[in-house]
Amino acid sequence: MNNLVSASERSRLESSRSKAELRALAVDLLTVPDIEALADVAVRVLSEQFRASHVQVHWAEGLVGAGSAPRQTAPAASGERPLVAAEVFHQAWDLGRPTLRASQEGMELALPLVTHSATGARAVLCLRVAHGRLEEYESFAEMLGLRVNDLLQVSRLKLAVERLEIAERIQRALYAIADLSSGDMEMTDMLSGIHEIIGDLTYAENFYIGLYDPDRHTLRFIYFADSMDPIPTLPEQIFTEAELENSLTMGLIRHGKALMGPSHVIRALLGVTRDEQFGPDSEDWLGIPLVTGGRVCGALVVQSYDPTVRYTETDRALLGYVGQHVLTAVQRKQAHEELERRVAERTRELVEQIEVRKRRERLQAAFHRIAELTSTSETIDELYAAVHGVVGELLDAKNFFIALREGDWIEFPYAVDERDPLARFEPRRTGITLTDHVLNSQKPLLATREELDRLNREGFARTVGTPSVCWLGVPLRGETGPLGVMAVQSYAPEVIYDETDQEVLVFVANHIALAIERKRAQDAIRASKEDLERRVEERTRELADSNLQLRDQIKVRQQIEMRLKHEALHDALTGLPNRSLLLDRMSQCLNRMRRDPERQFAVLFLDLDRFKVINDSVGHLIGDELLKEASRRLQGCVREPDTVARLGGDEFAILIEEVTEIEDTCRVARRVISALNEPIRVSGKELFTSASIGIALGEVRYSAPEELLRDADVAMYRAKARGRQRFEVFDETLHQEALNLLTLEGDLRRAIARGEFEPHFQSIVDIEHGTILGYEALLRWNHPQRGLLPPAEFLSVAEDNGSAETIDWQLFEQALRDVPALAVDGRYVSVNVSARHLRDAHWHEHFFRLLELNRVRPDQVRVEVTEGALLENPELIRKILSEMRDRGLHALLDDFGTGYSSLSYLHQFPMDALKIDKSFVKDLRPGSTGGNTAVVRAIVALAGSLGVKVIAEGIEQPEQRDALRELGCTMGQGFWYSRPQPASQFLKPGGADPYN
């Protein structure tokens, strides 16, 4: 392997290489500045002295990020093949082994010059020779490798320094971008600063940033600087994707990866055509997509029109890194600007709200002032002058007049004008002036000079006196009809009235018209009084007495007016603030708490326990005295500025305006309970009552005082449910119960619409023989999620929200549909009718029409009513039941024994049967004599003597059945016979057997 050529040829080569040539070679190798020059020297020496061809030096500095592909010199002879065989090269490059390969053209050599596994630095010498020995080339390669190693180390150091400088430049750029985004400068100034920063990193004379909306497929260029493109691009201008179809920017966004190169090359890569509207071609173009959350949302682009300026991979990497920070800066600035915009918008809204509130307050103050002027002005002229002052406080009223119509004449009792003399306002007949126009149309007129000229030309209204720049007139209309016109006008261009001024003047005019009428009435009364006084003085003292009586009437009227104002905000019985005044003060507390959360407050909602019983037993007059005394005691339990209010009936509320902790309200609640526990003496009677109290603390989550009062009411009902004479604080549990109640109310409305209510029937049985005599229709709710629900779980809610009556009618209609199938062989179906139906004098007529629609005979149905329902309006209910009986529809008295349990009902009302409540039946046993047994025996005996049937409810055991049989009760119902079930169950074979 080492004998590549003959001995004679080797001798010739050795002799031809002189010491001078070796020294010259060494000098050349030591003086070359870089590895590229060293490679050129190696190629020249090997080509000239060794007759080698295809000479190449391949190297890689080995720095991280420099790439693993080797760099190389050009081949010695461009016409020959540029490389040795691939396997020869890779043996030396990858494995570090000197390698040769014989071919027809000679020998191919690949000699390792440098191999550093730690740094990754490598260098290989490749050549092709006709003959020679491997040792000679290895010797040359060894000398060459020493210098290559030195130069590679120097190159690596230079690259490291360059990368460090780049890293520092990037760091400075990122700091600068962060400073710009966090500063107070505008978006345009920030982007201009970013342009300068990018310009410090790379060539960026032509630079722009585009933001893309991937949802709307739109693009806008928030910054655009280009030396060759004269078309200005506004930051707010939005382009659609279709408009930029052939632009490099939209192509970059669709591509999603950085692109670099001449614009025509990138167009070819993206498959877009040339479009003149997107400016001239660039010599080099570098675009970086801006990505957030995995979606392309913009592009950062630099481009060069100078053929000498080209971008590098370093520029691509640098801009790709910096670009994301630019996007973050832009998004942060946009978020900041959006926040400032929202704050400004909200501030503007609040200012407008404050202005509206102030205007309302001014109008309210004007209203009170006008009302006050009516009684304080000595004469009508004083009233007009004072009214002018009030209007002047609300708008510009330097030129102001009041015109009143008296028959066919218009008088001007008050006028102030900067230009026209008062003679212009002398009384005149009605005509076609602006004042007449408003008076006839009874509508406000707001007109500028142009509108006034038009009205004058068209003959609708003629201007009298000096033409004004703006004229505003509104009708004065009192309770008796149109009175006249009130107007203001401006001669100054800077004073122009608007719709707001018109609204203000209309509001004021409405009250002024009433004030004028009242003042006229007062003046008439005063004139009449003066006339009476004059006549009294001239004639008799008797008329003087009449005059005194007239004064008293006026005084009484004034007192009545003051009392009416007081009664509008106070309870007539107790003198306490009413609901309206309480809600107003609660609203003030809520507003105060929103401004200062430390200013807490609370509301106590209470009602008097057993008040209805007391009221019904001793009468309403004593009940009213009880309420007055309770009010006085409640006032004694609080301090200023707390409010005790009566909400109605026996319901009261206490507003505690300063609360430090919840215990403050609890102490007040205890004082109230203690105060009301003391006996109250009224008209010689000693009455006892107590209070159930609900407490709700004010919180900023309440948007209205009614919500807070509602929660206190809920807590009060919890206190009643837990035993009364106690207090409960509203908490999240009660809040959840309230939410559940709202959910149930919504479910009820949907259930009515969907027809989810249905009747279940319980058989009424002949106790002696066990045969079914009839059925009672009982309400059930087939809830889609909760299953079958009895009335106890929803009926109270239906009563509260007013849907119970609708549910009843649905039950009536469905039950009557089943009557033809159930009410056979003399059987009947009974339905329960509540007191709310019997309040309607025509209820039974509606029910009879329902019977006709379902082809049901009256004798197939029974109506069950309770004792309580009979007492609400006995005369009306007696009339209804009598008409029902006359038409064949009989009534049953339900739950007998749970109310007043008076058998006198059986005399007063036409009852076919009574139903003994199950509470009397549950303890019955055969052979028993006392307790409920005696009661049931008496009921059965008395009812039998009156010819009224008796039905026992709640039979659940055979012992109860047997005891009832002993007592002579022949009919009953209960779980022992059947549970409530759909009609279909009774219609099955064997379903009529009560024991099934």
Quaternary class: single chain
Counting helices, strands and paired strands, the structural category is alpha+beta
> Which architecture name of the largest domain does CATH use?
Alpha-Beta Barrel
For the biggest sheet, the summary is: 8 strands, mixed, barrel
How many helices does DSSP assign? 31
Determine Rg (CA atoms, Å).
53 Å
The portion of residues assigned to helices is 40-55%
Low-confidence stretches: 1-13, 64-68, 74-82
**How would you state the average pLDDT, rounded?**
83
The total domain count is 5
Strand content: 15-25%
Strand order of the largest sheet: 25-26-28-29-30-31-32-33
According to CATH, what is the topology of the largest domain? Answer: TIM Barrel
CATH class of the largest domain: Alpha Beta
Anisotropy-based shape:
flat
- What is the first-to-last residue Cα distance? 115 Å
Task: Write the CATH homologous superfamily of the largest domain.
Answer: EAL domain
Number of strands: 33
Write the layout of secondary structure elements.
Elements: H1 7-16, H2 19-31, H3 35-49, E1 53-60, E2 71-72, H4 86-95, E3 99-103, E4 106-115, E5 122-129, H5 134-182, H6 187-201, E6 206-213, E7 218-225, E8 239-240, H7 248-255, E9 259-261, H8 263-270, E10 284-292, E11 295-304, H9 313-376, H10 380-394, E12 400-406, E13 409-416, E14 428-429, H11 434-441, E15 445-448, H12 449-457, E16 470-478, E17 481-490, H13 499-538, H14 541-567, H15 579-595, E18 600-609, H16 611-618, H17 620-635, E19 643-648, E20 651-659, H18 662-677, E21 680-682, E22 685-687, E23 690-697, H19 705-721, E24 727-729, H20 732-754, E25 757-766, E26 772-783, E27 787-789, H21 795-801, H22 804-822, E28 828-832, H23 835-838, H24 843-853, E29 861-866, H25 867-872, H26 874-886, E30 890-896, H27 904-908, E31 913-916, H28 918-921, H29 932-945, E32 949-952, H30 958-967, E33 971-972, H31 983-987
Parallel strand pairs: 23-24, 26-28, 28-29, 29-30, 30-31, 31-32, 32-33
Antiparallel strand pairs: 1-2, 1-5, 3-4, 4-5, 6-7, 6-11, 7-8, 9-10, 10-11, 12-13, 12-17, 13-14, 15-16, 16-17, 18-20, 18-23, 19-20, 21-22, 25-26, 25-33, 26-27
